[in-house]
Amino acid sequence: MRKFLLTSGVTLIVVGAAMYAVGLYDNSEPTGGGANIGAGILAVLGEALGIIGLCAVIASGITTLVVWLRKRPSARR
C-alpha cells in the first residue's frame, strides 16, 4: 500500500506539473481576441492533480513512519 501511494503520488505530481506547464505555455501565446479558456482550465486541473499527488506522497510518508515506529523495540513494551 505504501509503495502504491508513493508511486501514484509521484505520477500525479508529474502529470499535474506537465498539465500546468502546457496550460501556461498555451496561455502565453496571443490569441488575437481574448483569453484562451482551455489553457486556463488545463492549468487549474494540473494544479489540482499536483496537489492531490502531494497529499498521496505525504500519506505514504506518514504510513511509512507509523510502520517504522511500530517495529521499534521500544514500542513493544
Rounded to an integer in angstroms, the radius of gyration calculated over CA atoms is 19 Å
Helix share bin = over 70%
Residue share in β-strands: under 5%
Which structural class is indicated by helix and strand composition? mainly alpha
* Total DSSP E strands: 0
How far apart the termini lie comes to 27 Å
How are helices and strands ordered from N to C?
HH
How would you describe this structure to a colleague?
The chain is mostly helical and 77 residues long. Helices cover 81% and strands 0% of the residues. The chain has two helices and no strands. The protein has helices spanning 2-28, 37-71. It starts with a helix and ends in a 6-residue tail after the last helix.
Key features?
mainly alpha; 2 helices; 0% strand; rod-shaped
Set down the secondary structure blueprint:
Blueprint: H1 2-28, H2 37-71
Helix pairs in contact: 1-2
Quick recap of the structure?
The chain is mostly helical and 77 residues long. Helices cover 81% and strands 0% of the residues.
